[in-house]
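Need C-alpha cells for this chain, all 295 residues.
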Amino acid sequence: MGQTVVFFDCFSGASGDMLLSALLDAGFELKALHEGIGSLGLSSDLVTSERAIQHGITATTLTVHDPHDSQPARSLPAVRRLLAASGLSERVTGQSLAVFTAIAEVEGAIHGLAPDEVHFHELSAVDSLVDIVGFALALEALGIEKVYASPLPLGLGMIHIAHGMMPLPAAATLALLARAQAPTIPSSAQIELVTPTGAGLLGSLAEFRQPAMRIQKVGYGMGKKELPWANVVRVWIGEELDLPPARHTPVSSAHTHSHTSGSDHIHAHDHDHAHGHAHTHAHDHKHGHDHPHSH
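Here are the C-alpha cells for all 295 residues:
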C-alpha cells in the first residue's frame, strides 16, 4: 500500500483555523486536540468546534476563545521550552517548531529583529499554539505521512494593521510563501485570502501539487466570514498512488455526408474543448503585528 497523504484544496485561501477545522471534519477528534493543548498548559475550554452549513456545504469551524487569565507574550525561545516540556511526540514538536521558527524568522527580518526577539502576543499566542500544534497533532493522529496543497490564491488591496495601512498580501505571508517557493494564483479579491499562519503551515510542511491518490476521507474547514460562496478549505485524505498524470488529447470525429451529385465527402473535424471556472473571493480582515488570522 502507498503512504497516507493529505491534499488541501485551498480555493478560498488558507488560515490556520480553516486548515485545522478541515482535519477535524475529516476525522481528527476534538478530544485529542484538547488533550494535546492541555499538555501546553491550555484549558480545553478555550477551544470549541461546531458544524455549520454555508452555501449548501456542511463544514466544521473552530473557535479559540479569549482566555480569562492573562497570557504571556511568548517569544520563540519560550515556545521551544513549552514544546520541550509538553511530552508531545518528537514529530509533533518538530513540525510545530519548524512552523513557529519560519514565522519568527520572516517577522524578524521584516521588523529588523532577531528571530528570538519576536513575540507572539496575548490571544495571538494562544491562537498560534492551537492552530500550529493542533495541525501537527492531527497529522499524527490521522496517520498522515505527507502533506500536499493546491496553489494559493492571493488577494490585493490594503489592510489595516498595528503599523498602519499595508498592502496585501501581508508582508509576513508574502515572505513565508517566497521562502517556500509556493505557487500562487492571482485573485481580483480586494481582501486577505491567505494568512501568515496558513502560509507558515503549508509553506513549512506541504508540497504544492496534487498527488495521484485513492481518496478515502473528505473534510471541510469553514472560515469565520459569511461570503457569497462557501468559505471553506477542502481536504482529501487517502492512499497515494504511483500513477502518471491524466493526458487529455483532442477528440477527432469523421462525418460522412451523401450528396445528390453522387459523390461522397468525408469531413474530419477536430474539436479541442477547454473548460474552466473562476472564483471571486471577498474577505474582510483586520489584524495586528504577530497575530494569526482567520477568515
